[in-house]
Structures are given as C-alpha cells and as structure tokens.
Amino acid sequence: MPRSLSSRTAAALLLTACGVVPTTFQSDAPDIAGQDVRLTILHTSDIHSRLLPYDFDPSFTDNQLGLADGLGSYGGIARIGHILKREREKAGRVLHLDSGDCFQGAIIFNEYAGEAEMRLLSEVGLNAAVVGNHEFDAGAATLAEQYSAWGTFDLLAANYDFEGADLPWATGLETMVPPSTTYHLDGLKVAVIGMANISSLNSIYDQSNSLGVRVLEPIDVLPREISKLRSNGADIVIVVSHMGLDDDQEMARTIPGIDIVIGGHHHVAIDPPLVVTNEETGRRVPVVHSGAFAKFIGRLDVVIRDGEVLTHDYNLFAVDATVPDDPHILDIIEEYEREIDTRYNTDQFIGYACPETMDLDLSCEKLTRYGMDGGDSMLGNFAAEAMRAFPGVETEIALTNTLGIRADIPAGDITLDDMFNAMPFDNTIATMLLSGAEVQELLDYVSYRSTERGCASQAQVAGIRFDMVCDPDDPHAANIEINGEPLLLDSVYELATNDYIAKGGSGFAVLERNTTKTFTDIAVRDVVIAEIIKVQTLPQEGIAVEDGRINTVY
Fold first, then answer.
1. Is residue 141 over pLDDT 90?
2. What pLDDT is stored for residue 198 in this prediction?
3. What local confidence, expressed as pLDDT, does residue 26 receive?
4. Distance, CA of 527 to CA of 483 (rounded, Å)
5. Residue 68: beta bridge partners?
6. CATH H-level superfamily of 347-553
7. Does domain 44-335 match CATH 3.40.50.300?
8. What residues does each domain of the chain span?
9. pLDDT at 506
10. Residues in CB range of 138: below 8 A, 6 or more apart
C-alpha cells in the first residue's frame, strides 16, 4: 500500500539509522575548522527509466568514456545499486545526488507511471534529486502521488513556485519540493539547492501536465537561497541542476557562493569535469555531468578547508554486463520485470534491421535517429512516412520532433522492447491544415531551433524537402518543396504530426495556435510498429534511408 508523506519521512529516518543516507541532525560533531575535509558525491542523471538492462551500440564518445563495445547489456538499477554500495564503502562523508529525469524512456514507465523509479531510487539510497522536466510526463498530480508514496529522498526545485496553482496537487508539491536542504556529515554542513529545468517547461502544457507553476530565473533565487544557507552555517553549497550544461556554466561563472554544480538534461558525460572561474570571487567551480540512460555513474571527491574546495578528483564508472547486481535491488526490479513479461511479449519479433546480406549501397550498422550530416535520419524519415500514410490519416505532409525518437535500433532482430526504447512516449497523431505561409513559419522555427543545437535537425519530415540554413544571425528554411513542387504561400496543406508538438510542446507555437487540429488517438509508436511488420526488413530502397530531404546549410 502506498505510504503517506509522514510515512515517507519515517522511512527516511529508518534508512538513516541503517547508515544508508546522511543525517540532518547530529550531536558531538567534530570541529573541522582549519582541517582538510574530504567529501564524496556520487552522481546519476537522466536515467530515463532504464531500470532494466538494455542493448545498444555504444557511440565513439561512449567508448572514449569507458563504455566498451561487446560488454552489453548496459544500464540497470541493480547494477547501479551495486556500484553505489561499493563506492559508499570506500568513502567517509558521502552523498548521492541525481540531476533529474528519472522518468520516461522504457516500458516500465509506461506501465507504472513512475512508481518503479521512485521506489528503486529510494532503495539504492539516493539522498537528493532535482525535479526534471520528464518527471511531469504522466502529470504533475502523478508525480506528487508517486513521490509521496515511494520517495524517501529529498526532491528539490528552488526555481519552481507552485503557490499560484489552484489544482489540488499543487499544495502537496509545494510542501514536498523545497528549494534546498542541508546535510550534516561528521561536522561538515553541505547545502544542496535544486535548479529545475526552464527551457523545456513549454512541454508541460496540457491537462494534468499543466503545472500552474511560476518559474523563477537563477539570478532571482540563487543569491537569496545561498545567503540563507550560509547564514545557517553551510560550509559548502552544491547546486544540483537539470538546466543543461550552458546554464550550469553560466551559474557557476556569474553567481557567487556556488562551490560545485552537479548537472544534467543534455545527456552528456564530461571527464574530467569542467572548471569554471567565478567572475566575482575568483573561485574555481567544478561543473559535473555524468551522462544519461544509466550508462555511467560519476564519483566526485573534493577536499574542503574552511568552506573552500581546494582540490577535486573525478571517476566515471561504466554500467555494463561486467557489473554484478545488488541482490536486494534485483529482487525488487524482477517483480516489475515479471509483470511486464506477463502483460507484454517484450521479445516479440517485429522485423529485422541491417541484415548482413544487405545491398552495399544500403549497408548500415544500426537504424539511426540522427542524420549523419545533421539533417534527416533513417528512423525519422521512416516514422514520418508511416504517420502520413497510415489509414485514416493520409495527409500530404508530416513532421515530428526528432527528440521523440530516443534511441537507435541496433542491427538484428527488432523487438517490441527495442520499439519502446526508441519511442517511449505515448504520443498520438494529430492532423491539421496549414497555409503555405504557416509551413514556412514552421520550417523556419525548425531551422532556428536546430541552429541552437549545432545544426542537428530538431524535426523529421515526410512530403517535404528544404534547405535548413543554420545561420546564427538568420536561421531559416529555404527552397522548400512539397511533394516535389515549390511551396505556395497561399495554398493549404494537410499535416500529420504528434499531439505533443501540436499542442505547442518544444516551442512549436505555429502548431499550438492552429484551430483546425484533429486528434486521432492513433499511437505514433503503434503506427511505426505496424509499418515495420509490413516491410519486415530495414532499410530498403527508398525506405528508412537518409535521402537529403533536410539539407543542412552552414
């Protein structure tokens, strides 16, 4: 039975007594003035529901960071639990911090709406996490319910104000999600402030996902929070962030009083950490990012004297098949795995990717979600074509957001589990009528958004070809063709897209304000699965190949 908030607190105190999490109250603390004191921070981020091990082909960057080919499967919370326990045993003062987005990315989230993530992160002894934008994917009310029932760690967000919301869960989240907390670790007072995501809040827009939250800028909250914590005796201040690498560096550079930034959201791992010099104090601030999808765990060791970080050392641990499972955590995750296997045949064969007998002109190592040159991709083209051609949809053009596809599909048998990993969101197809001028505006926005992200296309299309001009001073779409004909600004075109961006997610305002929308309730993932079953082998000539429909121009 789900536990109440008071029971959650009691559980946290029980874990404290067992030595799993640090205490917030302490007597007879040693005097550490003038002494070198060591602190260990264990870091996870952007787990995205990868609680069960999964197969994928590590990238070149993954390999460089220590995730070797041939050592899969990768990830899994039982392996994470083993590494965390092992590293705690080697440390004295230790905290486990998570930079958010533990939700969304695998079938376990679709089935249990965050219960498994909250429960198992509590079981591995997580101390504090910042709220990630995907924590709201099943609704803010669900976040409040699951955290209240299962969370024994501190959930933080200094830059979210829930007080203006009149929905019944808002008061609960205001109580459950404080701006900061302080841990007393053998004489060392460590303050942790949560800085939640701002850039993706436009994805939290509808129904139970409507936060009614007032979002605050870092400069409006951090100086005040740091001052409060320092006045209460904090020796060092850590910001655990889900704002992204650029914002993390900006906070470290411009806001005095931050000693360490532990970040996430951009799914990058950096080894060694960046070190940013604060413009006002001259102090050097480590900025740590430890990757995503349960591939790595970061360990940051710092030496502190009189409130100043003197040195730091960092290790990144790969989570692969060589890591043993923690038996207790394995027992719990297997409960969920058995139930999922009962409801789904996750090993169900759907099709085949990249067969060895493939024509050399179509050879591939995997079905990719990003294009080789930043434009259209194999999976993106396939998904968009499947959407617009599906019976009952049958539109002239289609456009879907690239980030709706979260993983490549490895060569070999394509299974149902592969499809949930690649397309975890329960998005459905929406259709609408757009004028040619609106199509131009839509593709201009895609070009603008892509330019901000290194000219990697943030949308995938069907029935459209265009030049994506990634000029920082004038990003725009040029030479647009619709099914082989030049775009006519005064014509009308029917578009298939997903309900997320149709409602304005990821900043697609031109779709949000359109008044001709029809929501079909046809699941995008189901449409793509049906098309794979139909064609069986990918890629084929003209199917699931990059064909230059989005031509990047720098």
1. no
2. 82
3. 47
4. 21
5. none
6. 5'-Nucleotidase, C-terminal domain (3.90.780.10)
7. no
8. 44-335, 347-553
9. 87
10. 103, 109, 113, 114, 208
